[in-house]
Give the backbone structure.
Amino acid sequence: MPQLSMHSPVGDLSISEDDGAIVAVDWGWGSLQTPTPLLREARRQLDAYFDGDLRQFTLPMRPFGTAFQRRVWQAMSAIPYGKTVTYGDISRELASSARAVGGACGRNPIPIIVPCHRVLGAGGAVGGYSGEGGGETKLLLLRLEGVSGLAGSALEAVMGCD
């Protein structure tokens, strides 16, 4: 499976492709580097996102998961840049439980591109994040997108902002 790694503000990332679609973004540097045109484009779009110049990814994706997980990931992909929803919002949309939605968020194989960081707990609580750095990484991504006022200024407290 072709893979290409990159440096980012949230640590090293490795992007994987299978049969012409992005299938994973993992934390860490991959041992095999295969700079296919699609992986180069994914790296370019991620760089532009981190620079604040890209608000919506336009990459072919095929995340591997159950039918329910793919529905949750599709719902997350519809959350606009700089906006958030709650696990409960998605659970109501999919007629499921917030816990099941949280489980699918935690298994998202294409974080950042499929923006699970935009899903919050009830009342705007930041909640968990399965990426390297956990909640601090989630907060950094939300801050990058201009989200503020999370759960009693938890964002500013963690990021050291006034």
About this structure: Residues 152-162 have pLDDT under 50 and may be disordered.
